[in-house]
Design brief:
- The complex is a heterodimer of chains A (114) and B (108).
- Chain A is an all-beta fold and 114 residues long.
- Helix content of chain A is 0%, strand content 50%.
- Chain A contains no helices and 11 strands.
- In chain A, the strands form 2 sheets. In chain A, strands 2, 4, 5, 6, 9, 10 and 11 form a 7-stranded mixed beta sheet that branches. A 4-stranded antiparallel beta sheet of chain A has the order 1-3-8-7, with no helix packed on it.
- In chain A, β5 and β6 form a beta hairpin.
- Chain A is globular.
- Chain B has 108 residues and is an all-beta fold.
- The radius of gyration of chain B is 13 Å and the shape is globular.
- Classes of the chains: A mainly beta (114), B mainly beta (108).
- At the A-B interface, β4, β5 and β10 of A face β5, β9 and β10 of B.
Chain lengths: 114, 108
Amino acid sequence: EPEVTQTPSHQVTQMGQEVILRCVPISNHLYFYWYRQILGQKVEFLVSFYNNEISEKSEIFDDQFSVERPDGSNFTLKIRSTKLEDSAMYFCASVGTGSSYEQYFGPGTRLTVT
Amino acid sequence: GQSLEQPSEVTAVEGAIVQINCTYQTSGFYGLSWYQQHDGGAPTFLSYNALDGLEETGRFSSFLSRSDSYGYLLLQELQMKDSASYFCAVRDTDKLIFGTGTRLQVFP
């Protein structure tokens, strides 16, 4: 069964450093998302991406965040200057066209900012 | 603001039936989804209601009343492996707005 993959599974970085989180959505899916989940809290929407551009973003997704689909398979989230409060699990998700209400989530990247 | 409220925790024994409620207040609404998340895992899709009524998928059923801004997930014949967190999520345009989550503990 096709699945969304994410790398790395765990990233530790120092405050102020840049990080890039990588995702490979399910092939032939067209809509891509990043969500984050702070430990013990709910999942929060960050950004949605379609047709090579951002379709919607939340208040959390400020200027320090950016997304890119550099090739036909990868989807990346970059945090330019990490803060302590960016520590969270970051999930990538994708949606196909057949059943657009079902989002397929990757296993997540745990980001720890020290 | 946007909010989805769920009970924080529910406990039950194997074989029992449990209902997890969700009330929502969002600016947009296309439908209500339910996701399961085991500790350290990713959310996995369980069900979706776009219209009022009951949707049944095996041991899981989900109900929606748009006029009441309310839905629930019904889990039957509980198994130990059902111990997890359950999130309702409103589909607003193409994004999901998640609820606060309900931790279900199933005891033998």
